[in-house]
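Example record used in the benchmark description.
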Amino acid sequence: MAQCILSVQEFIQDSFVPMIAVLCSGEAERLTRKNNLNFVELLRPFCRLTSEGHIRDPNNQLQTVKNLRICVSNMVTSPSPSASLGSSQNRHLSEVVFSCQPQEAAQATALRTGDYHLNLNVTTPWFEAYRENFLQSMPASDHEFLNHYLACLLVVSSTEAVPVEQFLKLSQEQHKIQHSGEYTNPKWFIPNTLKYYVLLHDMNEGDEQRAEMVYEDMKQRYGSQGCYLLKINSRASSPEEEEQIPDPWSQYLHKQNLRNQEVLQLANVVSAQDGVVAPEADSGDSTEKGAGGSGCLDTHPLQLDTDSCTAGLLTLSPVDADGKKCTGDTDNPAAAPGNHGTCLTLNDHDRIRQFIQEFTFRGLLPHIEKNIRQLNDQLVSRKGLSRSLFTATKKFFGGGKVPEKSVNEPKSTYGLQYPPEAPELQIRKMADLCFLVQHYELAYSCYHTAKKDFLSDQAMLYAAGALEMAAVSAFLQGGASRPYPSHYMDTAIQTYRDVCKNMMLAERCALLSAEILKSQAKYSEAATLLIKMTSEDSDLRSALLLEQAAHCFINMRNPMVRKFAFHMILAGHRFSKAGQRRHALRCYSQAMQVYKDRGWSLAEDHINFTIGRQSFTLGQPENALQAFRQILINDSQQTATQQAAFLREYLYVVKSVLGENESCLPQLPLPHIRSSATRVYFGHERRLAEGEKQAATHVSLDQEYDQDLSVLWCQLEEQLAASANRGILPSNFQPTQCCLNSQTNNLHHPLAVIEEPIIVEVTFRNPLKVSLLLSNLSLLWRFSTGTPLGGKESTSEQIAEEMITNEDSSAGEKEEIVTTEIIKEFYLGSEETKTARLKLLPHRTGQLNIVGVIYNLTSSHFGEASSNTEGQQMLDTTIIRGRQDLKIQGPRLNLTKEDKMQVRYDMDRRLEPIITPSMPLMEVFFLQFPTALLCGEIRKAYVEFCNVSAVALCGLRVASTHPDFFTFGSQSTAPFTPSCPRSAENCSAYVTFPTPLPPGSMSSETLVSAPACSQPTGVTEIPIQGSTLQPGQSVQLPLWLRGPDQEGVHEINFLFYYENTEKGLKISHRVLRHTVFICASRSLSVQASACRSSASPHRSLDDKGSGGTLVFIDVENVNASENGVREFHIVQVSSSSQHWRLHKYINPCNNYDCRLSSRERAKLCFKAMRCKPHEGSDSAREYTFADLNLGNERIMSSSTPCGDFFFRCRQSSVLEQVNSTPRNSRSQGSGHTDNTASDITSIAKKCNELDLSIIVIWKAYVVEDNKQLILEGQLHVALQTIGKEASSLIPKEETQEMMLLRFKSELPPPVILPYPELTQLIRTNLCYPETFTHHFVKESLCLVPVTLTLSNCSLVQIDVIIDLRHKSSSSESVEVHTSFAWVGQTQYKLQLGCQEMVRLTLQACFFRAGVYNLNTPLVFAKPAEHSTLCESSQQTASPALIIINNACPLLS
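Model output (structure tokens):
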């Protein structure tokens, strides 16, 4: 339970106090009315004694009475009370609770338990006020005497003619009321009631001496302890001096006025407010409520009845309840604060206080003490009789009980009554007297004795009363002598409620027990008790008790938060039924703290719905809107019908709040907008294909954002910008972002162009199961003619220009600034997520801020018939125009320590574009652009550039991820490139010439400069005439394409770059993107290798004194004939190099026609020679192209497109090698070994490098639609090293197999082997006769001269060792005779200079005829400056066979 102002002991003591009746004469009332008070009101603030009193118990023990309060009231006769509160009492209690509302600045406590953070009321003054008034309004009953009068004050004025006679009249009147039997009320404690005579003297009117004389006479008559002279009114009613006298009566009179107000006045207030403001009477039949009694919530707290609540808000109107509540009769001067006791001084206050003390200590307490002794003596005298005899005597002599009910009913009925003189009642009377004077031990003993007697007689009402007071007395005794018997209270409550049907007594008992249990921290038992007391007969009582039970749950050692919230909801529901709307709203609001954002969606909906209704009824439209908004924002699990009702109620509240003020646009909660998913597109939407023209794909909102692809486009744009700025990237470079989203960089203001649309894609989500219709949907914007100061990023506050917005409905001059597109209808289905693309067209330069969206929201339920009733039909067509702001949050900052410690977000300016002046706008179209190509296939297409703006453009460039895929041609080869194909029959893309020479003769050479055909950056300048494209102008250029070398689908990206002819603008350039997908199919596989020729040196010497090189080319048709390719025809083989060229085609069979069907293979052999130096040429930049045609036409391999693609492919391969080369190469051995290896590698590389590129040009014959087509193409093979094979096919990357992880190496340390690179340092050649005839009969030994030629292939000095003693063990040598020997010097050591050639004359000795292999000398070589560890055996040529014939064959 909530905290109370009084302690439990003080609360119980104040609930049961001695009752004192007052009878006043008319003159005495007149004297007190000078102070706007009657006599009872005059005494009330002083009825609590400040000093202690004493009495002696029957054992003559002194008992102290502390903090005693007496209750003084006028003697009122009324009918016999019933077991339940009457209608007027219910209205009074309801008004008491209603008038005690929680203050906005009231103290609240913050409770943290687990994950919950609650702010709760510390106190509940409305409950304390209800409890106090409930206990005071309880009528006196016959089974107990606590509410019976103990004494009577007889008050007479000293101005009476004969005061004594007036006292006699009042005394007789009191005696008549008590003993005549005509009046059932008031009840009197004992027959001999104490009468106390008070003489009231007015100090300003009466004669003080006469008053003293009358008082002396009274003391003679009634004794000094039975009378008192009270002097009041010591000053005039309107004193001239301004003396501030405290007013202790105000707090009591306010409560009294509420208690004494007329039932009719309250009923008038209720009817005047139409049941909305004033609470209803909490009668026994709580189901009969007025129009404002929330009848739609009258079934269950968690049930939302849509049938009865559909148009519930139509009958409710927001009112101000604070200014119209009834506080009593405002015409009564006593009700006005600050004018009570105007004739009283502080001395008069002290006299009144002294009078109460004298009456209590000298009159009341001695009277109670005397009666306790008398009752005790009677009980003691009866203890000698046996219980059975005493009971039998009572039965025979009429001392038994008088039953009220029929004799046929059981005797245990609660209607059994005792006569006043019954001994059981005497025990109860003594117990009540002891309880009133705080003698709780004796009181408990008496209650316990009376309880046994009542239970034995089955007098259940009396027994329940005794049990109740026995339990209270046991608790008030204090100490650990006797624990609190809570089972007494439980039995009493059950008896009151179930047997006696008296809910008033049961409620009183529950209130007392709950307070006691709470003081003992037994919150669970207290909550259970309070919940049991709830019923349907009183909504107000049930609401208050449920609220206190909820506070019990939250005050437990382990707070039960969800039970607290649930019972607060139940309390709020009952408050609502009782008409206490403010209390209902408070309960629901406190419970909402527990259920909010916890996944209890249905509970949240119910609470928010109730809060919204109650707030709207109480004149709090903002709170109502917030509550209904929460229902629509949360992901509700309600049915579609319920959600439709929520939406209609919300729209009605918004309509009521706005009224006729259409200019104020409310923030609407529906539909949900995913602000972070908002995308902004700048520029026109791309044009679709026109006939055969294919438009560039560029950027559109239909494309999904790819971060990796965005980085790729940015890199291409950087290349283009650097190329346009002499190879340096500008410092103010910003990549172009046509489409902004949550993943792009939105820190800077985006730049838009005047007269170019801005498209904003907004994502809407309908969380409801009902459809939504948005009409007149458009963007909400603000426009300023200024721009951010200094060109830097700034907030909108720094833009100090005129601000224009389209929030109002007038759109006249707004269209001259920005044209806003309006979507007439936008339909959202049930739980549908849908995007809307809204367009703006700016017409002026400046700063544009896109604020949000504006639209009409209607609650029309699609697919359902409207109701016939007028109110329902009006609800179904409610239309509200509102707005939703687009509040986009930037990425969270996580760079500094402060960012990581706090939650900070960066700026997101995607909706704050700056409108810049006109810029050129280009569109690109492609003609005859293929989608599928063979690997290496050459195809000619056309590209058209159109300037669709009013501004000229220049600096047209293009960059691509595959620069070897296309070419526009080069200037050096332009004269050789016709604008259209030479022959329309074959549509050849090459430049061809007829060949007069026979095929396979010497090659034709062409010298071409490399920079003219290739650019290292991969950026291509588009050759348009004049380098400028005027407004409206278009130009069409040829574009040659070459199929990728690797099969599969390839994504190829083009980025076109162009600039404005006017410099210094905010937008320096613009770009256009295009993406194509090419499906490449396999064509030919070309593998090439080179080896040194073994021909005689004199037949193969070139100008430098070195021999030629043989080039072997293997060509295989790897096409699977899937594309209708019948065969491939090799028409020409060309070479390109700075140092080498193909010299001759070696064809022994003279078969020059090379045609390959599917899976066929051919091997071609060519001889390559070093290029002759050209005078005045730069060999570092010029390439020699050599063409060897295999047909009757020669193709210019150095011209476009053959030469262009060669250089582009070469440049791509160089870039790939640079990117794939590791930065730090790993090596083994010491530092000296590393240097040695580096030198040797360099020597070997220069010795074996070839750098010869082979171009194989082919034609393919394809059958398509019964027509034969000829396709052309070229394949490139780069021979870099002699002896190393190269291929045109790019090998696919194979996934590496998983290797087992070894923690310990099991392999021996590697052995350092000779360097294989050094096996090509020396070239050897044997010169000898192929046949030699010798007469072995005449001479047994045959000597043949052999010349060994050694050629240094490197550029350094080489040490050579020749060993003739080596015997070959190769398999080739085994097949021939080996019985020969070298005679003469068998080992030579020579030193050859750079590319030096040396000849040695050797002698071979044969013993008989046969075929011999002379290639047996072993040659070792090493660089002259290196150690012998680098010595390597040199590779020899093919076997050198010699035939030795015998001149006499018969003897051989």
